[in-house]
Amino acid sequence: MPEHELHLTVGSRFENVELVQAAIDEAIAARGADEDARHWVGLAVREAVANAIKHGNRQDPDKRVDVAVLIDSEAVEIAVADEGSGFDPSTVRDPLAPENLFRTNGRGIFYMRRFMDEVSYGSTASGGTLVRLRKRFAAERTNGQGP
Amino acid sequence: MKIDKRVVGGVSVLELEGKITIGKGDVALREAVQQLLAEGADKILIHLERVTTIDSSGVGELVSAFTTVTNRGGKLKLVNLPPKVNDILQITQLITVFEVYDTEAEALASF
Fold first, then answer.
1. CATH topology of domain B2-110
2. Which of A24, A82, B18, B86 is deepest in the core (most CB within 10 A)?
């Protein structure tokens, strides 16, 4: 049973990345997340919402991004859904490959996977992209503790 | 993001403060570097001590700035990385791309 739930729906404007991050930061800080966890979760959230706005909704101001947050004593789970036409994460290049190191984009999913414990991709009922992020608050993390 | 510009011994120093993130900070950095290049600058030092957050767009903009300046025969270096910015450059392996210095004096002397 989640101790806290938060739902946000924002328009496809980059300034709303800030809004979503601030809301989630306040929610997890209130539940005892430390400064490091807040920083890395915040960065992952920013990437998920920015991707939804940029690649999912293609900055169409009429399309929205839905963010659902569940927080309990163990973890925060964040689901970010867009109104785009879907996305296959396996098509994304490895940003650490030498031939990609100088690319100016393509690091957003890498950020999310690095900073969160779990990241998964799916589709919404209308065919948009749904990305789910999970970060445990407990000390024994296998991944996502920050670099 | 706030950007202060100054020139020290022929090196253009950009002091960044705040967030290098999508939509504003990344654009501000791009414009600042483009302006320096338009003014003929070929030695650029980016001072990152007061940067609090750098997202993937901000990292991309740093890479773009580095590539643009290098391709024009110039040099772009970084100084005073805060721990979390350093972490980001480490995990993206871009720490191997940039010349990074701990102090401005060291950085200026390296040009």
1. Transcription Regulator spoIIAA (3.30.750)
2. A82
